Amino acid sequence: MPTFDFFYDPVPFQYRVDPMTGLTTHRVWMKRTDQLGRLVAYVDIDQLKTVNDFHSLHAGDAVVRGLANRLDVYRRQHEHLYRLGGDEFLLVHSRNLPVEAARARSKALRQLWLEPFAFEGTGIQITAGIVVTIVDDLNLETFWEKLRDLMLQNKKQGRNQLLFA
């Protein structure tokens, strides 16, 4: 059970909900104190800048909104989904999810971007990197830095990579 009340949280409402996707923002995730020991899947769209440059910023926004919608549909009832910013998302699995089940769910995440994203009569194909790890630090700022470092390692391996750490 979260240790904060969503409606009385010190994070102002306009910072709780991402206006582009409607997802809960990273600011709310950073305030949660019940994350230790949870498995998370960190998703970062590969080369979104290329989509923005080749198609337009509106196309990039459509891809971000589309992936947010697909992730939200994919999310199970007891999982939490956050938009961390830009092209990054965090899926927090339920506390009792076995590691092997998390591996299978994370591999299935890749299916979410196999179908192109529609934008003005065209399909935009993307890939994304995924890092799956356990929240191992009560200081979520420190853990966030670890997640970003792991994603950088993952991205060095190429596009559409899945890293379990």
UniProtKB/TrEMBL annotation:
Pfam families: GGDEF (PF00990). CDD domains: GGDEF. Residues 36-165 form the GGDEF domain. SMART domains: GGDEF. The lineage of its organism: Bacteria, Thermotogati, Deinococcota, Deinococci, Deinococcales. This is GGDEF domain-containing protein. InterPro entries: Diguanylate_Cyclase, GGDEF_dom, Nucleotide_cyclase, Rev_trsase/Diguanyl_cyclase. PANTHER family: DIGUANYLATE CYCLASE DGCM-RELATED, REGULATORY COMPONENTS OF SENSORY TRANSDUCTION SYSTEM. It comes from Deinococcus roseus. PROSITE patterns: GGDEF (PS50887).
